[in-house]
Structure formats: structure tokens, C-alpha cells
Amino acid sequence: MRLLLVALALAATAAQAQIIAYTDRFGYTGSVTRYATLADAQSASNALATFTLGESRDFRVQLFNGFSPFVEDQYHIGTNWMPPGSPSNTAAGFVQVPLQYGANSVHAFWDATLTQFSFDAHGALDAPNARLWDGTPAAANQSGRFLDYHLWFVASGLDPAFWLAGFETYASVGDPAAVTGGFSGLFENTSASASGFYTFDFQLNLDNWAFANFGPYESEYYIPSFFAAPNAVPEPSTYGLLGAIALTALVLGRRLSPKRG
Known about the structure:
Blueprint: H1 2-11, E1 19-23, E2 27-35, H2 38-43, E3 49-65, E4 74-79, E5 95-101, E6 105-110, E7 117-125, E8 131-132, E9 144-156, E10 162-164, E11 169-173, E12 178-189, E13 196-205, H3 209-214, E14 226-229, H4 240-253
Antiparallel strand pairs: 1-3, 1-14, 2-3, 2-13, 3-4, 4-5, 5-8, 6-7, 7-9, 9-12, 10-11, 11-14, 12-13
């Protein structure tokens, strides 16, 4: 199987912009505000309550776009609750856009030094296991749909990205030294006990429990970041063979995030 995937990687040709954003490194804090109606939530008026998350939670971004059939388009955004003993495995502050397969509205690019990765994604989702903290201890068992979500970040201090000629993109493996960004949107809670409309506004940081306890090297519960995006500056294709083999090894090592029910 590994040899087959290597062959696919070496034979790949670029048909569109290929983007990967896969990281366990981020944390987040922020707030959630509840409204009775969609109109109130959209106008930010007549709020019923606002809940603030003081303690940082671990965040996971898992997005592959444009590498099919080598790897399916997929995305997962939300709380990284899986490492054993993680304080993020709790209702307070929990958010989950569960693992999905298919296209997403996503854009990304590198700066001129190839050490800073900028990312922006928009979406909406009505699917089982969509979750957002409703301010109560039972939030982990709530359900609903994301009417809108927006994730953006700038990860800097990365190892210089290398050129993947077969995929017409630059890739970097390793965690950032700094991040700015946020995750925000509008969620409709359809559970009887907490029905309503909730806006959320989380700010990203590097305060990450999984990294502190299981990083910075690859382990069962922590994987270093992997970012890829095209860039207008051409790069010698002599790096293509090594790049494709490296990509194959990295993708084989990625694990899918289970959906928290």
C-alpha cells in the first residue's frame, strides 16, 4: 500500500490549488452569546446571555483540499479533546465542526520568505455531531447546525516551505513560533433544553496542553503541524521527487479525528 501511494504521489499532476492545514498546536479562548431569534443573532441585539471561556482549550485544524485522488478532500475544525487527561475534554468551551469529506471554501498562501502561512476558510454545516458550548455543563451532548463559520490564522516562524513539483504547491512540516487568528460564526442549537441561536468568537493562541504534555515530536497524541499552499514565485522542479515522497510519508502518518458524540 505504501508503494502504491508513493507511485500515486510521483504521478500526480496539479489541476487546482492544493492546500493543507493540519495542526494540533493551537489553543483558543473567547466567548459565546445566546439569542432567541436568528434576526437578533445576526444584528447582535437582545442577547439573552454571554458566556466567556477563561481557560484556553486545545484546537485542531485538519484540512486537505485539492489532493484527490491521492487523499480525499476533508476538513475537521474544533476542540482537540482526545489526548488522555486533557482539560479540553469538557463541555465548557467545546466546539466541533466534525470530520467531513468534500470541498470547502478555503484560501491560503505563503509570504515571500516561505516561513509565514496565511489561511482563511468559510463554511456552513448541518450534520450529526456538530457541537457548540451553550454555557451549561450539558453542552457536550447538545446538537445543532453551523449556519456560518469562519476560521482564519497567520502562522509564522515556520521552517521554510519546500516545493512539491508534482502538486504545484509549497509545504512545511513543523510547528509555528507564533499565531494570530480567530474562529467565529453562528450556530443554531436544536436541542430542546438549549434551543436558540449562538454567536461565537474565539481567538487563537499557542497555549496548548497537548503540545506541553505530548509534543513537540510526533506521538500517538500529538502530530507536528503540516501546512501547504501554492505560491506565485517559481521554484526549481529538482525538489519535486523528494517533495512528493515526503508528502506521501506525512499523509500516511496523519490520523483522522473521531467525531465526539
